[in-house]
């Protein structure tokens, strides 16, 4: 590898718990400019049993033993993804792995983030890949006075800076977040609220557990807007908080959806939910 070039692997799993995304890139420092060359990406699914355990954790009561089991299982899954990334994306040569881990809890108190917990013991990644591992990214941001989320804002700002008007990037994950880069102003980034977190919960609820998500949006396309339910959902105090702010599945989860449905009943029944082909 050329001197001055660093080959880095990034590992990430979001609040939808679909699996682990791995991306690799080469970074070269030239004066005060950093150049990046993408080496590709891959997806590594969670074992079904592990995914079920992750999904069952927040906001349910749990034990230290269960958290320890999850920390190890997630760490081993991330290690498998890291090994694959080294071999499949980096031709067997890399310098560093950066692991986000799996967010299990985001502690917000009176609008201030007090702490954040990501599981996935990085020692498993280091042992499997033989590489140094950088981790606890969100906790570092919180310790510095930040929200711990969204972390993608720094990269968004680099991509959007210099574009005409007021460019913005919107990410629709389990929780949606936005980065706004206005001219002559610091970038603004925050979590706007739920995206797939409640959509996936609705798909599981209305399909009677047969579907994990609304495949191709068929369930939404077959339905109609329920004005009372929409008003109930939009009356969430979080939306009225000023940015920067952050949230997670500690607030927007299945019990939250069920409470909204109880307040504004819908005529949708599991028998009319469109099933996936095959």
Structure description:
By secondary structure, this protein is of the alpha+beta class. It has two domains: 144 residues, ATPase, nucleotide binding domain (Nucleotidyltransferase, domain 5, 2-Layer Sandwich); 130 residues, ATPase, nucleotide binding domain (Nucleotidyltransferase, domain 5). It has nine helices and nine strands. A hairpin with a 5-residue loop joins β1 and β2. α2 packs parallel to α3. The longest helix has 26 residues. The mean pLDDT is 90.
Task: Quickly count the helices.
Answer: 9
In whole angstroms, the N-to-C terminal distance is: 47 Å
Structural category:
alpha+beta
Annotated CATH architecture of the largest domain: 2-Layer Sandwich
Write the CATH homologous superfamily of the largest domain: ATPase, nucleotide binding domain
Which topology of the largest domain does CATH recognise? Nucleotidyltransferase, domain 5
Order of helices and strands: EEEHHEEHEHHEEEHHHH
Percent range of helical residues: 25-40%
Query: Cα-atom Rg, whole angstroms?
Result: 20 Å
Low-pLDDT residue spans: none
**What's the number of extended β-strand segments?**
9
Number of domains: 2
The geometry reads as globular
- How much strand content do the residues show? 25-35%
List the helices and strands and how they pair.
Layout: E1 5-13, E2 19-30, E3 33-45, H1 48-56, H2 64-89, E4 96-109, E5 112-119, H3 122-129, E6 133-134, H4 137-143, H5 153-160, E7 168-172, E8 175-180, E9 188-194, H6 196-206, H7 218-222, H8 227-234, H9 254-263
Parallel strand pairs: 1-4, 4-6
Antiparallel strand pairs: 1-2, 2-3, 4-5, 7-8, 8-9
